[in-house]
């Protein structure tokens, strides 16, 4: 019971801070979503009756860099949305190396928001990471569903290309990034970033061909 009492105490303290500092209603919504996700996770996986035990270190933590999140926010509308709350939770799981939990978080989001191209795109990314940086059938299906839901949005082809790139399949990544670039808003900062990354990738493939090395297989 101690764990649940501490959780209740944290909730009360958070509520008191919101009142004391007179924060705007948006902050209430964000804080409430964070507490809800935390409480749900604890209720689902928490075992307060067990004695303390050292945490098992992750064997494969996934780096979720600030610049990666910043680009994603510009591409897909930021973190302070219904979809974004699940992305934040997924990021936290990926940083610990728990790709299975990250995938489950996003699947939960899709059950709540089934037509979210944002969550389907992230699901494709998480499936690929969970399957050892491979474009598995599950990852491919998720990315394709994202593109069906938002055929004119650059995010699904960009992240599908990124998954192919992580898998070492440069040839498959290039046309997807070209499509993402073509769909990007003209002169937007994310368009410039995608163009820069595409230029680097095409240059790497060109150098490989000039040196007589075949690019990674499609």
What's the count of strands? 0
Q: What is the CATH level 1 assignment of the largest domain?
A: Mainly Alpha
Instruction: Enter the CATH topology name of the largest domain.
Output: Serine Threonine Protein Phosphatase 5, Tetratricopeptide repeat
Task: Give the CATH H-level superfamily of the largest domain.
Answer: Tetratricopeptide repeat domain
SSE order and pairing:
Elements: H1 2-20, H2 25-45, H3 66-76, H4 82-95, H5 99-112, H6 117-130, H7 137-149, H8 155-166, H9 170-183, H10 189-210
Protein name: Cytochrome C biosynthesis protein
Transmembrane segments: 26-44
Keywords: Membrane, Transmembrane, Transmembrane helix
Descriptive account of the structure:
This protein has 218 residues and is mostly helical. It folds into 2 domains: 44 residues; 145 residues, Serine Threonine Protein Phosphatase 5, Tetratricopeptide repeat (Alpha Horseshoe). Helices cover 71% and strands 0% of the residues. The protein is built from 10 helices and no strands. Helix 4 runs parallel beside helix 6 and helix 6 runs parallel beside helix 8. The longest helix has 22 residues. This is Cytochrome C biosynthesis protein. InterPro entries: TPR-like_helical_dom_sf (IPR011990). Keywords: Membrane, Transmembrane, Transmembrane helix.
């Amino acid at each position: 019971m101690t764990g649940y009492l501490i959780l209740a105490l944290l909730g009360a303290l958070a509520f008191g801070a919101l009142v004391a500092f007179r924060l705007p209603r948006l902050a209430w919504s964000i804080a409430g979503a964070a507490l809800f996700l935390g409480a749900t996770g604890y209720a689902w996986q928490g075992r307060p009756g067990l004695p303390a035990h050292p945490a098992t270190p992750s064997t494969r933590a996934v780096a979720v860099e600030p610049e990666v999140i910043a680009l994603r926010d510009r591409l897909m509308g930021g973190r302070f949305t219904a979809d974004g709350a699940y992305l934040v939770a997924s990021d936290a799981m990926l940083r610990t190396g728990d790709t299975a939990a990250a995938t489950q978080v996003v699947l939960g989001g899709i059950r709540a928001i089934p037509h979210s191209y944002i969550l389907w795109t992230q699901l494709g990314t998480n499936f690929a990471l969970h399957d050892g940086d491979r474009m598995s059938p599950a990852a491919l299906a998720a990315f394709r569903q994202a593109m069906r839901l938002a055929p004119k949005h650059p995010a699904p082809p960009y992240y599908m290309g990124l998954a192919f790139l992580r898998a070492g399949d440069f040839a498959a990544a290039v046309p997807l990034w070209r499509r993402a670039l073509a769909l990007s808003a003209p002169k937007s900062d994310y368009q410039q970033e995608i163009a820069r990354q595409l230029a680097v990738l095409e240059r790497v493939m060109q150098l490989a061909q000039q040196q007589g090395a075949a690019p990674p297989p499609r």
